[in-house]
Amino acid sequence: MISNSSVPDTFVASASPNTNYNSGSNMVYLRTGRDSPYGIRRSLINFPVPAGVANVTSATLRLKLYSSAGTPNVHAYRNTGPWSSSSATWNNKPAYTTASGSTKAADSGNNWYSMTVTSIVQQWASKTATNYGFTIMDTNESSNNIWQTWYSSDAPSPNKPELHITYLGASSVPVTSVTVSPATATVSAGATRQLAATVSPSNATNRTVTWSSSNTAVATVSLGGLVTGKAAGTATITATAGGKSATCRVTVTGASSVPVTSVTVSPATATVSPSNATNKTVTWSSDKPGVATVSLGGLVTGKAAGTATITATAGGKSATCRVTVTEASKVDVTSVVVYPASADVNIGATTTLRANVYPVTANQAVTWETSNHKVATVNNGVVRGVSPGPCTSKRRQVANSLNARSLCRSIIGIQIQTLSVTIKRIWVIVLLCIQMMFHLMIKQECEILSVLLLASGVVSCQLTSITTREILSSTYLA
């Protein structure tokens, strides 16, 4: 490839026939086509052919497009006279061949346009024509506002013009033919097919083969000739070496289907064969979801004691696993302790009992009972006093179908003032009132009061008489 800042180039314009544009901002551009400011625009460029270049097999001129208007139809012509980039104008531009020496400039990607100029460079290399460079022009020069602006050799890299030359050299053995095997091939979308290229003669100097596809949407080809089907259709695969080429017509069909041959199930996973089967998606099912269920990923969960068949299916093939579900393991209760062991509660008041079940891994569900609902009630450990007397609060613990009982004697002591003391004091007050009202009438010994006191059961001792002084004494006020 030849591309450097020493390559002479410029452009000329018919609207300013004596102006040289190889200076200032115009230095970085080449122009073709026609527009109002410049009129007809043509570009001149001369790539030196290095010494030793002989037996040229191909040559390509590449220009980087800066801007354009209209549809370009640009070609390269071989100059037949000398020119200088520092002095060339429209009026002194060099002559050129009347027939184009290149193909039409074609967009090769990223705004790079390529023209095949093999015949021109072969003349320069063989010395049958003097290298005065190229005149580059648009064949639509009669149409105004169809123009192109290209980067020149004074533009920054990598935008400079390029000349690519493939040659064998003076002592090289040229390639006479290339063949591709097979000449036709059929491949499924997504599949591959290897092509082989044979370069003749076997001692040819340049035996390097390059591969290309005419339709990469249908089929692509690697640097080694491996074709990959992309979509249904046809594509031509070309092998080129030393300026010679051969082709293979490739037909791509729809993607082939690889059937599933078997499915196996293990406790860990499901395996689908063959490994390149088209549909390897596995679906899981259980014939008894009440006994065992299975997730989309094959995770089995036991639900109840029994057996169930788990099935894995892929591509119309299936395999099963028989699953046995057992009862969950039981932890027996060894003891139940109630705190506090005893408690006193007033009528209408409450107190809370707490129970611990051992071991802690056993079933902790419990029920509460009372031995005497008339004395105290219990609800979830909360005891409420009902009437005086003792009772026993029980906690029943049931774990894994086994019963364990722990009894806590919870004495519900009802604190009540002794009725006898109360009645005794009432009678003392009565006696005082009688004494105040009838002290003159009361006798030394009060037989009637004694009878009343004995009748009420207040005095436990056998009294036959009580004096006023005795009533007021601490014996009865105690």
The helix-and-strand class reads: mainly beta
Q: What is the number of beta strands? A: 34
Biggest sheet layout: 10 strands, antiparallel
Radius of gyration: 58 Å
**N→C terminal distance:** 134 Å
Low-confidence stretches: 398-424, 442-446, 448-478
What is the share of helical residues?
under 10%
Counting H and I runs of at least 4 residues, what is the number of helices? 5
Strand content: 35-45%
Which of globular, elongated, flat, extended, rod-shaped describes the shape?
elongated
- Arithmetic mean pLDDT: 81
How would you characterize this protein structure?
It is a single chain. With 478 residues, the chain is mostly beta strands. It contains five helices and 34 strands. The strands form ten sheets. Strands 1, 2, 3, 4, 5, 6, 7, 8, 9 and 10 form a ten-stranded antiparallel sheet that branches. Strand 23 and strand 24 form a beta hairpin. It is elongated, with a radius of gyration of 58 Å. The N and C termini lie far apart (134 Å). The C terminus is likely disordered.
Task: Provide keyphrases for this structure.
disordered C terminus, single chain, 478 residues, ten-stranded antiparallel sheet, 5 helices, 10% helix
Short description:
With about 475 residues, the protein is mostly beta strands.
Write the layout of secondary structure elements.
Blueprint: E1 9-13, E2 29-35, E3 39-45, E4 56-69, E5 74-78, E6 106-107, E7 112-116, H1 118-125, E8 134-138, E9 146-151, E10 162-167, E11 177-181, E12 184-188, E13 192-194, E14 196-200, E15 210-213, E16 219-221, E17 226-229, E18 233-241, E19 244-253, E20 262-265, E21 270-273, E22 283-286, E23 292-294, E24 300-302, E25 306-314, E26 317-325, E27 335-339, E28 350-352, E29 354-358, E30 366-370, E31 376-379, E32 382-385, E33 393-399, E34 402-408, H2 419-438, H3 447-456, H4 468-472, H5 474-477
Parallel strand pairs: 12-19
Antiparallel strand pairs: 1-3, 2-3, 2-9, 3-8, 4-7, 4-9, 4-10, 5-8, 6-7, 11-14, 13-17, 15-18, 16-17, 18-19, 20-21, 22-25, 23-24, 25-26, 27-29, 28-32, 30-33, 31-32, 33-34
